[in-house]
Amino acid sequence: MRRFVVVGHKAASAPGFSLKDLAGTGGRLDILARCVGAAMLVSHGLRPDVELVTMHLGPPSPPKAVRFDSSRLQHANPDERSSALLLEKALGTGTTGPVWQPSTPGVSVAAIGLEELLDGLREPLVLLDESGEDVAGAALPASATYVLGDHLGFTPEEEAMLRARAAARVSLGPVSLQADQCITVLHNHLDRR
Ligand SMILES: C[S@@+](CC[C@H](N)C(=O)[O-])C[C@H]1O[C@@H](n2cnc3c(N)ncnc32)[C@H](O)[C@@H]1O
Description:
The chain has 5 helices and 10 strands, in the order E-H-E-E-E-E-H-E-E-H-E-E-H-E-H. It is of the alpha/beta class and 193 residues long. It has one domain: SPOUT methyltransferase, trefoil knot domain (Alpha/beta knot, 3-Layer(aba) Sandwich). It binds S-adenosylmethionine. The site of S-adenosylmethionine has 18 residues, from strand 8 and helix 5.
């Protein structure tokens, strides 16, 4: 299983944002919406056995984690708006606890932060980091959780926590990429192994 976790530091944690202005009113929700397509979709279909968790740490009711499971996902389309709609529905379930609550098929939501999320995962954690080991030579596990930052990267506290937990820190190359681009590049790297 490939799992991606993307941390949205300002990302809306409840509906109320405009689907026409995800970047502004959604607190860069556009980044997370693009990650849904990059993680889940291939040409004319869904990837098997992939999970994406988007972390919503912005107002009004953080933290929220939204989980996409490609083996059960429905209503996923390549456009950003469709992904944002799935996020909006999940955030609108009104969940306040740590138990995953389903919203639409293949999408669920819990009121947990990054550390609590990682506490509940078994697969080794791989931190995507521009200064990490080059992915070309890295021995990546068959199943892993890959953690990415958003436009703000990671806070110093997150960075310390992630480094302490990570089995590896991996770079996808010398150029700093967008989070969704990282997912696409990494999928391609893993597909070729
Ligand atoms: C837009 S980048 C973050 C840029 C942010 N200004 C910073 O300095 O951290 C978003 C995330 O994608 C991942 N990332 C971007 N480029 C990468 C690369 N070349 N190799 C590995 N991870 C990368 C990192 O996890 C990063 O936190």
